[in-house]
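Hi L.,

You mentioned the student needs an example of a multi-chain input paired with its predicted structure. This one should do, with 499 residues in total across all chains.
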Amino acid sequence: MPETVKLLVNGVSVEMPVGSMVSAAILKTGTFAFRRSATGEPRGPLCGMGICFECRVTIDGEQHCRSCQTVCKDGMDVRTDG
Amino acid sequence: MGDAHHVCDVLVVGAGPAGLAAAWRAAQSGLRVVVVDDNPTAGGQIWRGRSPDARVWFERVRDIRMICGARVFHQPEPRTLLAETRDGVCELSFATLVLATGARERFLPFPGWTLPNVMGAGGLQALVKTGLPIEGKRVVAAGSGPLLLAVATYLRKRGAQVLLIAEQASSARLARFVAGAVGKMSQAFDLKRQLRGVPYRSGCWVVEAKGHEKLESVTLVRGRKRWQVACDYLACGFHLVPNVELAELLGCVVENGSVRVDDFQQTTVSNVYSAGETTGIGGLELSLIEGEIAGLAAGGKHEIARELFPARAKERKFAELLDHTFALREELKQLAQPQTIVCRCEDVTFERLREHDSWRAAKLQTRCGMGPCQGRVCGGAVEFLFGWKAESVRPPILPVKIDSLLGHGFSRIEADQ
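Structure written out for the whole complex:
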């Protein structure tokens, strides 16, 4: 079993240890704004445990996924909205 | 999309320490036990990433059915809960339920708290546990509670440069805490040793976070002193608040923010038990003991459960001490400025909220607490700032897909309302 997985964050390839969360992968690429708020402010993860919904991103075409509760998989395509 | 149906004697919601302890004890009585959790793996927040301290507990529950990545959102009929998973809706039928839904951090709004890289203390720790590289990053830990020390220790071990720990509680209260927490002293000393060189400031808090698009610095106050610290992350949480939404949905009585339980951890609903932080913030040991008692009681082993009462009483004393020590000081109510956002989901500012006299009125006029988090973040803040209590909970208690609602009784519920 490989010890890392590779995924794409806004088209940029990032390698993460198996079991990592998508939120961590996004931050690792230097992206801090995961989404824009109702009034257009940049927002990133707050609670890290699925409560706050600030880390919502699009994963493999599915919108509003909580990146802090989604495990990285090989070949995943992640898009932020920030 | 294949919908699943699980039937069990005891359903445990929450796979943290309390939930695992309850599951283990209930299974020992020969009952069919299922554990369900929102997170992708079991262990809760404290054992996220399979902490070695937890090995014995994971071993104990090895043969118990765990359904992770499933968020419970509705009780369509008594003794049945619905959870949404990536594969569809999962129907969970049970005779007895144990709620071990844990706690979340309390967040207080201050200027700049919505900037990216301002996170909860537990929030940043969770990210690092799940793959965020933190080596060499400058971190300020602030807010209140023992979690700040634990998080700072963890981050430092992972190579972070922890610049400061700012604890809002006064040094007088902290001194009484240290004197009272005799049984916990070895842990405290251990943390203190590992944090050597990191300033720990009592009576100190962040008044502002600054940055363009993301955090660049924080401004701290302590007495009359006010200063700025450049940093990459602010790990900021003001102790914890129990997750009681599911308990409320089921009709369990919630008092002072915690689920009310009797000696055997039974809630005011007869076949529903609750254990751990859901019944009041008390830490790991109390959660484990309460979980064991709930699991034993669910399995009819009341006499064995009774043997754990003295240990629980001792831990509850510690919980009371925690409450007293880390009670929020009045000055923190002045942190939010008129333009500070309080409800992050709907971007509702402090000045728009303070015109109202209840959360209900504020919700109707401003949509505060009506976004995806359903008030889980701003609820703890408005309670502290304005004294507003959360109103009755309605299903779905978490945002779910329309597909998950259709065909699961939701058209009926809408018609009833």
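You could point out the following to them. The longest strand of chain B covers residues 71-77. The mean pLDDT of chain B is 93.

Best wishes,
N.
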